[in-house]
Amino acid sequence: MTTSGSHRTEPSTSANERDMLDGWLDYHRATLAWKCEGLTDEQLRRSPLAPSELSLLGLVRHMAEVERYWFREVMLGEELPELYCTQEDPDGDFHFTDKATWAQAEQVWQTEVELARQAAAGRSLDLMSRPESHHRGEAFSLRWVYTHMIEEYARHNGHADLLREQIDGATGD
After folding, report:
1. Does any domain span residue 8?
2. CA-CA to 115 of 20 to 30 Å: which in 15, 29, 60, 63?
């Protein structure tokens, strides 16, 4: 892992609101990918911070679920099955066998990122979700979803920093 994040683009400091939100969200998406870069499947599956079940592979799977949920289910009202989680195992994104691979998880995550981009494209940041699309019965603006997603990635990228350092000692911003 390099210290600069080989595939990240710094968000603009003077963009309009939409471009700023897109820039920060893409920056954090790229940061998570960077934290996983160069590791083996075994390393990505490792949960080095016992008793926590957090792993880099689990974080990527979790973020695929989160992208799918907020942009497509909440904002567009699509009825989609969970990717990894079930009622019996609500943390299924972090529960996997030794056959789970980075290639598979990354493909699912990148597909969900692209579908999230398509779901948001051309829509007003003031667009409101239907209240029934969220379990609390609340409506959310697309602006709120962007802000929440940036926060979600930022929080989990902090976890990814700690995981990566425990796995191979690599650190970076």
Report:
1. no
2. 15
